[in-house]
Automatic annotation (TrEMBL):
Domain (Tr-type G): residue spans on this chain: 8-210
Family classification: Belongs to the TRAFAC class translation factor GTPase superfamily. Classic translation factor GTPase family. IF-2 subfamily.
Full protein name: Eukaryotic translation initiation factor 5B
Compartment(s): Cytoplasm
Full-protein residues shown: 512 to 941 of 1084
Length: 430
């Protein structure tokens, strides 16, 4: 049957690459937003999804006059972190996307997480486009705001063109074993050169994951979901992974953010009776406050066995639980969602850090978490510690911790936790 615009789903595009290559900035440039400057330490530490409607892409590519026939309703773009601890989020991102943009800093060439991203993409056979970003940093670059790249290149001096060719050639030499062909688009996330080309290449390519738990005023607890396949309806029975086991509930409301805004940005929402993939969606339902962000969401179909689905929903927690030290001695680790928790556990396990973990929690630090961490006061005093990342500490929990002598270290940048913990240990030794 002839495919019409209505029955094609939007492709999912994942942005990957080494830290600070400009992944978030590129998205900001396309959206006309400023998410990157609002990030703690300028670092992306979670997955973020944005929906680009077809109209917007059409507008941004019109100068290329290519027949940018958009057969899809739009494009769902997923941002990922570049810091090394976040392999899990890059892996998740590359696992759910149809196509990827691999961002490379033209001044730095191939870097460790560029290679890691390449390997993830190759492993899954995912096609990708290389955005050779920060061309505006070539010495003497003449800014041609938001211009197609060939037009911008024509404006450049011989020296700029030479430096560009030299850096491009280096990239080829350093990536000899790749052997495959892929598109490279020079871009600048600051002045916008090459962005039309990048979008056009994406257009020329034409099939569930819980992102985070948040309370939206008026809707109770909601979860952010990237719908990769199929359709969701109001009233569908769903199963998600929870701290105390699988949560079975019913969708009360299906909400989406206005287009061109990232799901994590606050705002008003559009209501839907049903939603088709691929989109970033907010789901309101009872019992979701204990849902573990970063895990899959299952819809219970008429022919499905509920017990099988409940078991499948808990799979994602297995790897996290396997990180708890068998000796029972270690710090207590708490994070906002599963992804950052996995990243934090990964970081604590690395040889340079090597801190044992005895317990984990997701969401704000409550009294029960302090109680669990306090068990270490008797065993190993320095471990009577909660390392908390990107979460709030409930005032009663703080009070209890102070009374009992449990230390709470809280940060919005994972890497700072180690320094704080190390200083604490050195302090105890004195
Ligand atoms: P992580 O998410 O932490 O891995 O970084 P990222 O890849 O998202 O990079 P980000 O967008 O945070 O940009 C890193 C820095 O590079 C910021 O200071 C940006 O302003 C700068 N930057 C990004 N793109 C460009 C560009 O095209 N040109 C120039 N000159 N600077 C850029
Ligand atoms: Na950054
Ligand atoms: Mg970023």
């Amino acid at each position: 049957p002839q495919e019409t615009e209505e029955n094609l789903r939007s492709p999912i595009c994942c942005i990957m690459g080494h830290v600070d290559t400009g992944k978030t900035k590129l998205l900001d440039c396309i959206r006309g937003t400023n998410v990157q400057e609002g990030e703690a330490g300028g670092i992306t530490q979670r997955i973020g999804a944005t929906y680009f409607p077809a109209d917007n892409i059409r507008e941004r590519t019109k100068e290329l006059k290519a027949d940018a026939k958009l057969k899809v309703p739009g494009l769902l773009v997923v941002d990922t972190p570049g810091h090394e601890s976040f392999t899990n989020l890059r892996s998740r991102g590359s696992g759910l996307c149809d196509i990827a943009i691999l961002v490379v800093d033209i001044m730095h060439g191939l870097e460790p997480q560029t290679i890691e991203s390449l390997n993830l993409l190759k492993m899954r056979n995912t096609e990708f486009i290389v955005a050779l970003n920060k061309v505006d940093r070539l010495y003497g670059w003449k800014v041609c705001r938001n211009s197609p790249i060939q037009k911008a290149m024509k404006q450049q001096s011989k020296d700029v063109k030479n430096e560009f060719s030299m850096r491009l050639t280096q990239l080829y030499y350093n990536n000899r074993e790749m052997g495959e062909t892929f598109s490279i688009v020079p871009t600048s996330a600051i002045s916008g050169e090459g962005i039309p080309d990048l979008l056009l290449l994406l257009v020329h390519w034409t099939q569930n994951n819980v992102l985070e738990v948040k309370v939206v005023e008026g809707h109770g607890t909601t979860i952010d979901v990237v719908l990769v396949n199929g359709v969701l309806h109001e009233g569908d029975q769903i199963v998600v992974c929870g701290m105390q086991g699988p949560i079975v509930t019913t969708i009360r409301a299906l909400l989406t953010q206005h287009p061109m805004k990232e799901l994590r940005v606050k705002g008003t929402y559009l209501h839907h009776k049903q939603i088709k993939a691929a989109q970033g969606i907010k789901i309101a339902a009872q019992g979701l406050e204990h849902a573990i962000a970063g895990t899959g969401l299952y819809v219970v179909g008429a022919d499905d066995e509920l017990e099988d689905i409940k078991e499948a929903s808990m799979e994602d927690m297995k790897s996290v639980l396997s990180r708890i030290d068998k000796s029972g001695e270690g710090v207590y680790v708490q994070a906002s969602t599963l992804g950052p928790l996995e990243a934090l556990l990964e970081f604590l396990k690395s040889p340079a850090v090597n801190i044992a973990v005895s317990g984990i929690g997701i969401g704000p630090v409550h009294k029960k978490d302090v109680m669990k961490a306090s068990v270490m006061l008797e065993k190993k005093k320095e471990y009577a510690t909660i390392l908390a990342f990107d979460v709030k500490v409930n005032p009663e929990a703080r009070e209890l911790a102070d009374d009992m002598g449990v230390k709470i270290f809280i940060t919005d940048v994972i890497y700072h936790l180690f320094d704080q913990f190390k200083a604490h240990i050195d302090n105890l030794k004195e």
